[in-house]
Design a protein that fits this description.
alpha+beta, Pseudouridine synthase, Archaeosine Trna-guanine Transglycosylase, Chain: A, domain 4, 3 domains, ten-stranded mixed beta sheet, five-stranded mixed beta sheet, 35% strand, globular
């Protein structure tokens, strides 16, 4: 399909990424299918990983920055007894150890130490930048990559199955967490090493993998001219963000960039301003004194 200069579609695709594709590969494929350039993704998945990749089209790309943060859920398999330089099965073996002494109780006890707020060192083979250069580029050149630890939060780290030397797990964590590092560090904590054998992102916020669409299914929808039926509308993209309902006069003022005094529960950093019909018209941030100012406005996005 040829790429159009216009951006006909404005919304979100909950894509179920298959193994072997980069996140950018998925974006390029979606661009070809939709026939438009303005497409982007929220939250990179490693090529070997599968599962949810949220892809936005048209004006919905302006919402990507609000989809990247938040809670992510993964399910996968860790192989204990073998460490690799990439912390996954694609890397070169750096050490091996016997695992005969390990049992389920030992593994679960070690997993407990990874729950809550922890400090994590990202993998050398990652997109984290050192002096402006992605770490993986330095690692591929054989350079030593010494990345600093950074805080991450693990809400849940659950053992689903144990068949030595492999364990199946589910983890719920905040964005920015490297599950490859969790696998590597768990192996180190057990004294045998380990790496991530497989990984699937099963949820991103309220978006679930059970509802995700494969790229082949998207191709079929395009061929049958029913893309509108599989693209989530613009106003549904930020379903997890706190909201405030505004009337017509308030909506008009926000559209002109004016701050308003609004009653909003809690102390959120950002709020969606919506009409009574649920249409997203602006994203608001605190402006002091109970006032909220528009950071972005969307007068014609739908």
């Amino acid at each position: 399909m040829s790429t159009k200069s216009t951006n006909h579609y404005n919304g979100l695709l909950n894509i179920n990424k298959s193994a072997g594709m980069t996140s950018h590969d998925v974006v390029n494929r979606v661009r070809r299918i939709l026939g438009q350039r303005r497409v982007g993704h929220a939250g990179t998945l490693d090529p070997a990983a599968t599962g949810i990749l949220l892809v936005c089209a048209g004006q919905a790309t302006r919402l990507l920055e609000y989809l990247v943060p938040g809670v992510k859920t993964y399910q996968g398999i860790i192989l204990l007894g073998r460490s690799t330089d990439t912390y996954d099965s694609d890397g070169e073996t750096t050490s091996e150890a016997d695992t005969e002494h390990l049992d389920r109780e030992l593994v679960e006890t070690a997993m407990e130490t990874f729950r809550g707020d922890i400090e994590q060192i990202p993998p050398a083979y990652s997109a984290v930048k050192r002096n402006g250069i992605p770490a993986y580029k330095l690692a591929r050149k054989g350079e030593d990559v010494d990345l600093p630890a950074r805080p991450v939060r693990i809400d849940s780290f659950e053992l689903l199955g144990w068949s030595r030397p492999k364990l199946t797990f589910r983890i719920i964590c905040q964005s920015g967490t490297y599950v490859r590092s969790i696998a590597h560090d768990l192996g180190a904590a057990l004294g045998v090493g380990g790496h991530l054998e497989s990984l699937c992102r099963t949820a991103s916020g309220s978006w679930k993998v059970e509802d995700a669409l494969g790229l082949e299914e998207l191709e079929v929808a395009a061929q049958e001219e029913r893309l509108e039926s599989v693209i989530h509308p613009f106003s549904d993209v930020l379903a997890d963000m706190p909201r405030v309902t505004v009337g017509g006069n308030e909506a008009a003022q926000l559209g002109c960039g004016r701050a308003l005094i609004l009653e909003i529960e809690g102390q959120p950093d950002t709020v969606c301003a919506r009409t009574e019909a649920g249409k997203l018209i602006a994203i608001l941030v605190p402006d002091g004194g109970g006032r909220w100012k528009p950071r972005k406005v969307f007068p014609t996005a739908d």
